[in-house]
Amino acid sequence: MKGIILAGGSGTRLYPLTLVSSKQLLPVYDKPMIFYPLSVLMEADIRDILIISTPQDNEKFIQLLGDGSKYGIKLTYEIQPSPDGLAQAFIIGEKFINNEPCAMILGDNIFCGMGLNKILNAAVKDAENGVSTIFAYHVNDPQRFGIVEFDSNMNVLSIEEKPALPKSNYCVTGLYFYDGHSSEFAKKIVPSDRGELEITDLNNIYLKQNKLKVKLLDTGFVWMDTGTFDSLMDASIYVQTISKHQDVVICSPELVAFSKGWITKEMIFASADKYGKSPYGKAIRKAAEMMR
Ligand code: TTP
What we know:
alpha/beta, Spore Coat Polysaccharide Biosynthesis Protein SpsA, Chain A, seven-stranded mixed beta sheet, two-stranded antiparallel sheet, binds thymidine-5'-triphosphate
């Protein structure tokens, strides 16, 4: 199973910050935003990951994450020349995907919750068996998202991108698990009126073939898209609250890697040394000391 983190885009809602910095490298409390989606893919046991970013930011991601060996994974990088839509990731990543099942997560999406790894493992297994999975979450502003329409038995009827009259309050989140056909199908999509290759069109291709599961993430899970100043602040406060009150480190690639047996404790300490006096460095050192 391969994985892609899509970390490009324009980030116009975070101007003027994103005029000079990649959105996905901005902090969510104590660590860069991209650590969160990276941890989710690692939690799903995905160790071969492609990071797609912009021409101006690609080098910074390489500087931060390297070849992935410090996390016991393999990271490679590609550039999206301009933000032409989420589904373009499967065209840019065609060689990397190599007709294998592939997950994609958006670089500004945060997923947390007890039991998330069970859900992720099920999605991986399904994708390997030819059934793709996307995740839906209840939102109050459905006009802004891809929205799922259900029948009375909760069967999925359609997915509509940013509908003026939404047929439900369940939006498609930025985490997708596809079978080996993602690149082939993405190449069939034509740009939408706003000039983008829409992920909703890709999902509808799978839906039409009866090969798409839409899994509802209930209230036990937190999904956040950190693309606005308010949501970025909310996410930071959420992570700060959990870190301080429950004394846990969430979405740490180093700690996920250690829990999976992919790296040694010494490798965590080496990363902590590099992070110096920072709270994140101290937190992963402390967590590693407490782990057997
Ligand atoms: P969006 O938040 O929809 O778009 P954006 O990041 O360009 O921000 P804004 O609306 O403020 O201008 O994108 C969702 C995620 O997908 C985000 O992490 C950026 C990424 N993305 C790409 O990498 N390439 C693309 O072509 C698009 C549309 C988004």
